[in-house]
Queue: 4 jobs
Job 1
Amino acid sequence: MVEAQPARRATNSGPGRLLIAVYLLFAIAATSRAGLQIATKFDEAPVAYLLSALAALIYIVAAVGLARAGHTGRRVALICCSVELVGVVAVGILSLADKELFPDETVWSQFGSGYGYIPLVLPVLGLFWLWRTRRDPA
């Protein structure tokens, strides 16, 4: 007899909708910021501006992964949230330790202080939501 697999809760339902909305808002904000910085003053702080562009890309892909809610979407969102958390912590530490390394701020500078620390909290919430909506234990 084959046991039915427990149902998986959808990542795009309930509080997941708010999480997706925040990811989309940050995708728009980071894309706009990075686009303007890259177009107008890229030579001043190329690493910082490219990191903002990377953050924007991660926010977009994470939102899509959470919205898709299937196996692939969950995996994509898990990877994005994990990379995002490592990135915001690493850039946060580096931006505080060596201010010359980032002559201009990125989305993740000082752990996202320019955005109310939401860039630090968002991947934690994303990972928590992915854990919370995993398959229910049998």
Note: The radius of gyration is 17 Å.
Job 2
Amino acid sequence: MHLTVDLTFPANIDDVATMLADESFVRWRAQRSTGSVNGAVEQADVTGTAEDGFTVVVRRTLPTDIIPVQARPFVGAHLEIRQAEAWEAASEGRRTGTVAVEILGAPVRVTATATLTTLPDGGTRLTYAGDVRATVPLFGAVIEEAAVTAVRTTLETEAEAGRDWLGGRRTGTA
């Protein structure tokens, strides 16, 4: 199932890239998007720099209440989600990257490209475009649809965290 999500930030590309490459921000946004008393951020690492390109790895656990009831027997009590982003250095006023999300214990994988572009008002658009795939024959479409909703919600929550971070409002959790 195809997924496209457009997110905006009131800052230029360099400031957004610097934020995305900041390990403190990565951990903070992951905690906000986990948002559940029963969820936890297990890992949030950044290697490289915003100027030269960087990689972000986040691993978190979430309760299975985010997936349809009929699919829960396939995954157990918690989902372990591993997210990896690889961002290239800026080129021609843009930044591009790749994103892979695996939900361990569930047959779901998300692969996408990520692109940062300048908006006419000087802000930045972050576009994720990719595919969500589930490999369960009977419930595959249901699981993909639920995964698309969960991924979209998580990305929108992370964008809100980014706007808060850029605006200096770095307290609280979602």
Note: Strands lie at 2-9, 40-49, 53-63, 78-88, 95-104, 108-118, 124-134.
Job 3
Amino acid sequence: MLIGELAERAGTSTRTLRYYEAHGLVRPQRSANGYRVYDEAELRVVREIRSLLDVGFGLDDVRPFVACLRAGNTSGDVCPDSVLVLRRKLAEVDDYLERLGDVRRQLHDQLTHAIAHREDTCPRKRQSAR
């Protein structure tokens, strides 16, 4: 299939496919007239790349998954290097969630303090609100 068909089937643009190619993630064949020609395996690779990028992986993170698919595996996440990336990414997400929890607690405490302080210093507003 040509680059336009691959882009359409993968739900991306030809520009994006060229970008992936420039980073060594997608490997087209070249026809006699120089056109990029892709097989079904490249469609699987592009779909894997897009799904990983959609959940926050970077291009360097994607490489082990692509290599795993190219090695003949049915999934890009079954190889040891892919598992390492998944573990690292999960640890990053857990850390981020912990930091978000800390921020949420700080905001909640600040709001609680602000409401209590407002009620102490603005008795007329409290009475008019009733």
Note: The chain has a mean pLDDT of 92.
Job 4
Amino acid sequence: MITQEKINELNTLYKDKSPSEIIKKAFELNNEAVVTTNFRPYEAAILHAVSVVEANIPVVWCDTGYNTPQTYRHAEQVIKDLKLNIFLYVPKQTTAHRDVVLGIPSVDAPEHALFTEQVKLEPFRRAMEEHKPKVWFTNLRQGQTAFRDSIGIFSVSKDGVLKVSPFYYWSDADLDKYLEENKLPNEFKYFDPTKALENRECGLHA
């Protein structure tokens, strides 16, 4: 859909632009878009920014089934407050069933790849196959992982989807201010069962 030369040009032109300007440009390129979320910390920012530009954009929530009660309550609040057009995707096996036959393997265990496939990668692939977006909004930011440091605001996913990260250069302090100005909640008791460390890549983006 888009050449690397064009990606480089966009990243240069939009490096200092606001999230709103970046989002509007992405919609100009193609309006077949989704925004993905897992309701981790600061996700309310991307959900607000995108829904202000396009209120009815499909919001894909891939729920691993292992979220904390605080995260589920936070998700319900954000969905209600922003009137999100939410599409929920969950693993094909229940958490209770998996707890008996597999549990949560450590990141070094041979079963970890299967676990990640079941709770994160398969639901995500299913979501993307159903929606078939040309544009994918995410809240990736520089400094989160080595891979994310290399991609820029605009990048192309391994499946050829234009990936747009409007807050790519923003710090936590910048996002704290954005949430406060827009009266948005935040939530830090988030648990990702596929990662032992915050700076570990989750598999969806690499």
Note: Residues 142 and 169 are 6 Å apart (CA to CA).
